[in-house]
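STRUCTURE:
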């Protein structure tokens, strides 16, 4: 089945207001920036996004956030976005913070048909006990807090511990970016861009993948495929310019060492 869609705009056209999105990427690495831009242009709003983070103020999911298109986030790290902080603390945005490994497993479970699982992560903390502020009121009080989660004791290797029940995440749409992909939706991710992308793709009922290089079926070595096409419904091939448009989240530059003569003003 040829899953190629002619443009990002056509690929996201049926994403409605209020949809839940699972979005790949880590920081600004491997984010589906072209699909996000198309969604911004389309005007879709009241979105719930599930992603490791929310981009930065002017790139990635941060663009949707800045345009007030996101009403709720499920994330594990949000420290690089000042507008995110402002909206959360002022009560404009609901945020469910989730431990990073737990978030990854919730997405994987959703794509695997597993409704829930137990994990020791968060046991004995507010993750399990509830009370984490999901949404603030305008006066700074907590308008909505996380509910307590089911905790059960298990004995593993002769050691009994409490484990927290975490529910799987299934999104209406998954948005991901791949290095290479074929017309059947088989995807290959390059190095650290693999991050949350396969998991976000698995969790989406309808998954849309933007690919930097489109190849024909049979050109990908089956042993190199990171995500089989069964998880992908639409493929958007990027132009060379779109594929090269990648941002650096934080640039650090070291000044070159000066020679002895230069330091003496020679």
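SEQUENCE:
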């Amino acid at each position: 089945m040829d899953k190629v869609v002619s443009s990002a705009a056509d690929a996201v056209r049926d994403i409605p207001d209020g949809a839940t999105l699972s979005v790949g990427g880590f920081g600004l690495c491997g984010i589906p920036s072209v699909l996000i831009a198309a969604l911004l242009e389309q005007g879709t709003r009241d979105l719930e996004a599930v992603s490791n983070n929310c981009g930065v103020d002017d790139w990635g999911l941060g663009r949707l956030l800045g345009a007030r298109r996101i009403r709720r986030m499920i994330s594990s790290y949000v420290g690089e976005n000042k507008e995110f902080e402002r909206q959360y603390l002022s009560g404009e945005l609901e945020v469910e913070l989730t431990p990073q490994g737990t978030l990854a497993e919730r997405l994987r479970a959703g794509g695997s048909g597993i409704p829930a699982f137990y994990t020791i992560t968060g046991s004995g903390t507010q993750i399990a006990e509830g009370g984490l502020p999901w949404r603030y009121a305008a006066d700074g009080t907590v308008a909505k807090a996380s509910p307590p989660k089911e905790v059960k004791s298990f004995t593993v290797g002769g050691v009994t511990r409490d484990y927290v029940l975490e529910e799987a995440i299934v999104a209406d749409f998954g948005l991901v970016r791949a290095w290479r992909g074929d017309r059947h939706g088989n995807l290959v991710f390059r190095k650290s861009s693999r991050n949350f992308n396969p998991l976000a793709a698995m969790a989406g009922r309808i998954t849309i993948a933007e690919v930097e290089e489109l190849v024909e079926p049979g050109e990908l070595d089956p042993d190199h495929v990171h995500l089989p096409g069964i998880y992908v419904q639409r493929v958007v091939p990027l132009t060379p310019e779109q594929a090269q448009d990648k941002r650096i989240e934080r640039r650090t530059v070291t000044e070159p060492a000066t020679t002895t003569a230069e330091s003496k003003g020679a």
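REMARK: Residues 116-167 form one domain.
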